[in-house]
Protein 1
Amino acid sequence: MSQLAYRRVLLKLSGEALMGDEDYGIDPKVLHRLAAEVVEAQEAGAQVALVIGGGNIFRGAGLAAGGMDRVTGDHMGMLATVINALAMQDALEKLGAKARVMSAIKINDVCEDYIRRRAIRHLEKGRITIFAAGVGSPFFTTDSGAALRAIEIGADLLLKATKVDGVYDKDPKKHADAVRFDSLGYDEIISRNLQVMDTAAFALSRDARLPMRIFDMDQPGVILRILKGENIGTLVQSGAAQ
Ligand code: UDP
């Protein structure tokens, strides 16, 4: 049916990716553009799952820094990811796609509970499946949720969208001589403490031998180009030579 290099993928978007130039919340134009990228990939024949963070609304660590109980803050952060997931579901449906939100915390008046077998069934039926509320526990992030769900559903690739065009040996915004990696092993990314994702997410992906591509989302058609096998951004994999 399609000439794609990957059959099933999971795309991780940060909550901040939905903000555009706003300081908070969701910019509808940005949401629409991201949804269109996802639909383009799905229509090309890929099974696409999504995880969206909540940092555009609340993060537990930030709330705790302001004096709130950390676990309560994390619960609020997880609920923020449900809000973003519902917004994305709506944007996808407006584009004519089929979409389902599945949450790791029970909130089943507004979306489905996460059930692995049902999630896989949705994907097989061409429904873009959005996993909300991370792993469902405080002290985790949606990066870990993305790695966990990608492994559980047997994704061929985890796509980590960022604002930078890959992984550098140091911050390219601060150092003009920063060098970008084409590919990198998980052990190296962990030992160099390159904080593109949290260490738990890298460790989970390494142990499950799940490859990950880290790339700049701000390029039209980028998801589909990656799915067609283009070498965009940085590929991270278990035991990879540089
Ligand atoms: N969160 C959590 N457990 C999870 C996933 C998320 O407690 O499994 C909370 C945590 O407070 C986190 C917030 O939800 O800061 C939003 O998620 P994240 O920071 O990963 O969002 P992103 O940075 O990707 O926008």
Protein 2
Amino acid sequence: MVFAASQSTAPTDAEHIAAIARLRRERNAVILAHYYQEDAIQDIADFIGDSLELSRKAAATDADVIVFCGVHFMAETAKILSPEKTVLIPDPEAGCSLADACPSEPFAAFRAEHPDHLVVSYINCSAAIKAQSDLICTSSNAVDLVNQLPADRPVLFAPDQNLGRWVQQQSGRQLTLWPGSCIVHESFSEQALLRLQADHPDAEVLAHPECLPHLLDLADFIGSTSKLLQRAEHSPASSFIVLTEPGILHQMRRKVPGKTFFEVPGTDGCSCNACPYMRLNTLEKLRRCLETMGPAIELDEAIRQRALVPIQRMLDMSR
Ligand code: 13P
Ligand code: SF4
């Protein structure tokens, strides 16, 4: 007689989703997700947003636990704003090339070379950089905030030089730029974009300001992920070529199912237009972090308090 070997089958997505729903209730947890998360995580989140909206949610929630489905600096910002809450991240390796491009000590030396400058840092940076900044901004409020700064003070902008150049152009202010960049937004192929434009001449080109300047020159509309989503909804155009991480296309297609969206591949057709950090989070890791209540974000209290000041200033100054 032949016996079938007992096989342990991996849980299905439906099982993970049911377990996450149960654990979320038991833990009084809120699941926040950025638009660059995989579709299944976006679908199960309590709230999806851009960096500014997610930090506002993190500051306002009355949940005991925040599960941050995004990258490390986003979860860290949530912890800075809500130190009494447990902040979980499904994969602690979910970093960001911009945050990595701006280490604390060289940044302190850069600041020391520009002692009269106001320091404006993009939220895509570590708590240690935030603690050395006068003001934090996101891609959705950077131009507005820089426009509010005293005209007689020079400004140092870190860590994204592409966003910084765009802010410079929009605000007319000269900025001293830290030379960081996003590996995803620098990967889009100009040739593929031009081909898509030739094939779909009526399509509007939507771009995130982290893109390289020569690609931003080809865009019809530039903004944060939320602003790109709003533009897709309200624009009279019926098709769009989207120059940002393709996770956002999930919400675009949900919000305006009658419109057509094209993603732009990376150079040489690589799939490097998907953020390798954001995509480390999975349903399975999300379930596991709620089961084990870890990994949780921990911060040095002195750094947290210093980092809170420029974040709170941003929230107060944002319209
Ligand atoms: P948003 O502020 O537009 O959400 O951008 C975050 C980000 O990491 C872009 O790469
Ligand atoms: Fe960082 Fe770029 Fe990924 Fe955004 S898309 S999290 S800026 S590496």
